[in-house]
Each structure stands twice: as C-alpha cells, then as structure tokens.
Design a protein that fits this description.
This protein is α+β, with helices and mostly antiparallel strands. Helix content is about 65%, strand content about 15%. It is built from five helices and two strands; from the N terminus they run H-H-E-E-H-H-H. The protein has a two-stranded antiparallel ribbon with strand order 1-2. Helix 4 runs antiparallel to helix 5. The protein is elongated, with a radius of gyration of 21 Å. The two termini are about 30 Å apart.
Length: about 110
C-alpha cells in the first residue's frame, strides 16, 4: 500500500502555522487616541504581538497575567503544536517505537 511522505492535511496545517510568523513579527495593532475633536493626540501606537505583551507586563497590576496569556496562546502553544506535528509526520512510518510516539503526539495535538 502506498503511503505518501506527507499528507495534504499535514502540509496545510504546517503552512497555516508558517503564516503565524508574520502575524507575530509585523505590526498588527495600529491605533490613535485623540481628544478635543481630533485636534489633540493623546496616544499613537503601532505594535506587534510581542510589543503588546511587553506593554501589558509593564503596565503593572494584573498586566503581567495578560502578557503571560498573550505569549502562551499566541506564541508558545502554536510552536509546541508545530513541533509535535512535524515530529509525528516524520515518525509515522518509522520503527514501532517511533510510530507509538507519533500516535501519542497526534493525541496531544487533538487535545490542544
């Protein structure tokens, strides 16, 4: 039976995670706060996700919690999922021990 090296779905999943990189690195928040009918500029910001997380952490109070959540859900979890996906794909036709690990990785991916 022919088993392709990489399934179409795996390729699509990897490509969606690769599209995450520009979202993390490029400026995605662009806002301007003005007062007095636009004649007085109070705040003008252009931020990436990383800049936003740093700004949250520096705010004080519970800002650090928000920064941790942003970093966790926007950076750490997608990176872990991408590593598990690539490892599972590489090991799915390996030795029996590698196949068992690949199956465990897929189960973890489904749970996340």
């Amino acid at each position: 039976r022919y088993v392709p090296k990489m399934s179409v779905w795996t390729g699509l999943s990897i490509s969606t995670y690769l599209l995450l990189a520009p979202g993390l690195l490029c400026k995605i928040f662009d806002y301007r706060i003005t007062g007095m009918s636009g004649t007085m500029e109070i705040k003008n910001k252009h931020e990436s996700i990383g800049d936003f997380a740093v700004g949250l952490a520096q705010e004080g109070g519970m800002g650090w919690f928000g920064a941790i959540m942003v970093v966790l859900y926007a950076m750490v979890i997608p990176a872990v999922k991408l590593v598990l996906l690539v490892a599972a794909e590489m090991w799915r036709n390996g030795s029996p021990k590698q196949v068992r690990w690949a199956r465990k990785f897929v189960i973890v991916l489904k749970a996340i």
